[in-house]
Specification:
The structure holds 2 protein chains of 2 kinds. By secondary structure, chain A is an all-alpha fold. Chain A is about 75% helix and about 0% strand. Chain B has a domain of about 190 residues. The N and C termini of chain B lie far apart (about 60 Å). Classes of the chains: A mainly alpha, B mainly alpha. At the A-B interface, helix 1, helix 2, helix 3, helix 5 and helix 6 of A face helix 1, helix 2, helix 3 and helix 10 of B.
């Protein structure tokens, strides 16, 4: 079991980290939450609960998502949407690597776009376009119906389009 | 859609550095070594897969266990997804259902079942087990029982039994109100829970409106004009006084007992309800002095409704809270279940002396998902026992010999 879980870590650590990162705009915190996600998931298994192999991915996202929501709640002031809108995204070391400037610009764009969204829409947009989950998988993570998820995604897209158009003008 | 995808093109550049990834992994492995798993996942997976083939197993098991006693009672606290849940909804409810002779008792019973569904949702979310499909199923069952309750109240009114319609309506309304308040409080603390209970709250509110309307309607008709109901109200008003008094005492007892464990908001809510109940009760006594029996009846009814809300809030909060914190201390949960039992005993005073029978059902923990479709599956199930019921003051006991199936 331990090996299987270690494999799950190898497979999903980056994905969960990325998810946390784009939800929180904070690299260090994202790393901590990723670790916490795996710790909690292990605690769940360790208590004798079962997660089917195919379900481990949604379970991890679900756990991460819950932690992020806690995080939002704890840091209501520090992490306000207004602040995110002003700062855009925390651009990190990646900008200095070989792909340099392109990545940097790309990240900045993502940051600005995500900064336009409220938590609820940001959640689904990150899952859909960054984590590349299907609406059905997202529904599973959020305990929602695929239909509702699609509606939320579409609303998120509309907000993004509106923002892009405003920027162009 | 391509433009949207393009925006996020570079997101996959965000990864952990190898050293970061290894660092966390080491921490994680150390954590796993310190907290080894109790059962191998492989075995559990196998077990889970094979379980699907034996959907009937819990039922069969339950029937077997029933003869050794205790199971039916244990099943009362089962949640959807639990092994004993089919026993709870498939058997216990039926026994109770059979015993609800009058429309009033039946309406009260159906109302309790609807409320029980809401409690299950609260408890499941507290345990983190509220899956969407499960939630939808429970909500459906809630709607079904609510519908039945409201129809039966209507029926009572149609028969001119306004005081019963008012009493059942008030109780149903009070339970829903208490849960409405509770869910709102829980959601205050967690956006996560709020999002997940949105649909439940919506349904609950819509039923709450109907229940309130039915109750007000019944009261209005009781107030206006002569009817047999008025005579009955006059004849039974003394019992109503006592019932209201007892309910206030009992709510106060509960509050004293659990005060230290309630959140501040819940405390305030409960306190204000008990206070209002006392005021309504006092007003009822004044009306009684003026020989205005209907007004007094409505006052006592309102007092009863408020104390009922207070009690439901305390009980459900405790149940939610303990399940919510179960991770930290499993023994807490047992404590609570003990406490729950004792609380029920307070409520239905004459329940305590039939502990020798296995099937005394306390009304709160009853449930039902399937009304009639499982009749064919069961045969030769005979249950004997004393069953108490307490529906809006209609206390009673039925000594029963119930046979189900062929």
């Amino acid at each position: 079991m331990k090996q299987e879980f270690a494999k799950a870590y190898d497979d999903f650590a980056d994905a969960i980290f990325r998810h946390c990162y784009f939800r929180l705009s904070n690299r260090e915190r994202a790393k901590e939450l990723m670790q916490e996600t795996f710790m909690r998931t292990w605690s769940y298994i360790e208590k004798g609960n079962t997660i089917e192999f195919t379900k481990i991915k949604p379970f991890l996202y679900k756990t991460a998502s819950n932690l992020i929501i806690d995080e939002y709640r704890k840091n209501k002031n520090e992490l306000s949407l207004d602040k995110l809108k002003e700062d855009g995204f925390e651009v990190v070391d990646e900008a200095k690597t070989e792909e340099g400037i392109d990545t940097h610009m790309g990240m900045e764009k993502i940051g600005k776009v995500l900064g336009q969204l409220d938590h609820k829409h940001r959640e689904v947009i990150v899952m859909r376009y960054i984590d590349k989950l299907e609406p059905k998988e997202i529904a599973e993570v959020l305990n929602d119906t695929p239909n509702n998820v699609s509606v939320k995604i579409n609303r998120g897209i509309k907000q993004i389009r509106r923002y892009i158009e405003d920027e162009r003008n | 859609m391509k433009e949207i995808k393009d925006i996020f093109e570079y997101s996959n550049k965000i990864t952990l550095t190898p050293s970061e990834k290894d660092g966390v992994k080491r921490t994680l492995l150390a954590h796993m070594d310190m907290n080894p798993v109790r059962v191998g996942l492989g075995e559990r997976l196998k077990y889970q897969r094979s379980q699907n083939k034996f959907k009937l197993m819990p039922l069969i098991l339950a029937i077997l266990l029933t003869f050794s006693g205790g199971t039916a009672l244990a099943a009362n606290s089962a949640l959807p997804g639990d092994l004993l849940y089919p026993v709870k909804v498939g058997m216990n409810e039926k026994i109770r259902g059979v015993l609800a002779f009058t429309s009033e008792a039946e309406a009260g019973y159906q109302g309790d079942l609807a409320v029980r569904r809401i409690e299950e949702i609260e408890q499941l979310i507290a345990e983190g087990k509220l899956e969407v499909t499960l939630k939808e199923k429970i909500e459906e069952s809630f709607e079904k029982h609510s519908e039945k309750t409201l129809n039966l109240i209507e029926e009572l009114e149609a028969k001119g039994n306004f005081e019963a319609a008012a009493a059942v309506g008030a109780r149903f309304e009070a339970s829903l109100k208490a849960h409405d308040e509770l869910i709102a409080r829980i959601s205050d603390n967690s956006e996560f829970i709020r999002a997940r209970l949105e649909s439940t709250l919506e349904r609950l509110n819509s039923r709450l409106d109907f229940a309130a309307k039915a109750r007000v309607d019944a009261e209005t008709r009781l107030e206006s004009g002569e009817s047999e109901s008025r005579d009955r109200v006059e004849a039974t008003i003394e019992a109503k006084v006592q019932q209201s008094e007892r309910a206030i005492d009992s709510a106060k007892d509960d509050f004293d007992q659990y005060e230290s464990k309630l959140s501040d908001r819940i405390k305030t809510e409960v306190r204000s309800r008990i206070k209002s109940a006392e005021e309504s009760h006092a007003q009822g006594l004044i009306d009684l002095g003026n020989k205005d029996f209907v007004a007094a009846f409505i006052d006592f009814q309102s007092s009863l409704s408020l104390t009922h809300q207070a009690k439901v809030m305390i009980k459900s909060w405790m149940s939610f809270e303990v399940r919510f914190n179960k991770d930290d201390n499993a023994s807490d949960r047992d404590d609570l279940e003990d406490r729950d039992d004792s609380e029920d005993e307070d409520e239905d005073k004459d329940e305590s002396d039939d502990g020798d029978k296995s099937d005394d059902d306390d009304e709160k923990d009853e449930s039902d998902d399937r009304d009639s479709d499982d009749e064919d599956d069961e045969s030769d199930v005979k249950i004997e026992g004393d069953v108490d019921f307490n529906v809006n003051g209609l206390n009673g006991r039925v000594n029963s010999r119930v046979g189900i199936g062929s």
